[in-house]
Amino acid sequence: MPFTITQLNQMSQAEFVAALGSVFEDTPAIAHAAWNQRPFADVKELHQRMVDVVQHESEAAQLKLVRAHPDLASKAKMAEASVKEQAGVGLDRLSPEEFEQFQDLNSRYKEKFGFPFIVAVRNHTKTSILAAFRDRLQNTASQELQQALTEIAEIARFRLQDLVQSE
């Protein structure tokens, strides 16, 4: 059910977390912390305040957030939003060859960086995701952590747009 900014601004902390706790994958603590920064003028400000919470976290907390995300094209259990996002670009309908490519790249990426490859799939196609995988495997761990956090912020922006309606 979509919410308005006015409704979100008037919610108790528990209601706010229940409404927006899934915006950042399995990390409702971000919504919990952002609630303290109400009122929000609009969804853009709400998003920025939530991103600010992430940016001010310790590296360990940021890594925990990154590691909460599922592998792309995985058959593992994942959050409903992730299932819909991945299905939107066809990652739930891969050929056996495509599935093998994703599994190989997921494995190589996690081995190198210690966390899953994260990309805002709504900005991509299967082909561009595979290209990004290959390109980003050339990055350093520090570069990839920052890129993962940037992608997570974009994913959160899309999820907020789905959850918050104009007034």
TrEMBL record:
Pathway where it operates: Purine metabolism; urate degradation; (S)-allantoin from urate: step 3/3
Domain Oxo-4-hydroxy-4-carboxy-5-ureidoimidazoline decarboxylase, chain residue ranges per copy: 9-161
Record key words, sorted: Decarboxylase, Lyase, Purine metabolism
NCBIfam families (UniProt xref): UHCUDC
Protein EC: 4.1.1.97
Protein name: 2-oxo-4-hydroxy-4-carboxy-5-ureidoimidazoline decarboxylase
Gene expressing this chain: uraD
Pfam families, alphabetized: OHCU_decarbox
Catalytic activity: 5-hydroxy-2-oxo-4-ureido-2,5-dihydro-1H-imidazole-5-carboxylate + H(+) = (S)-allantoin + CO2
InterPro entries named among the record's database cross-references: OHCU_decarboxylase (IPR018020), OHCU_decarboxylase-1 (IPR017580), OHCU_decarboxylase_sf (IPR036778)
An example Gene Ontology molecular-function term: 2-oxo-4-hydroxy-4-carboxy-5-ureidoimidazoline decarboxylase activity
Organism in which the protein naturally occurs: Oscillatoriales cyanobacterium SpSt-418
Highest taxon of source: Bacteria
GO process terms (BP): allantoin metabolic process; purine nucleobase metabolic process; urate catabolic process
SUPFAM superfamilies: UraD-Like
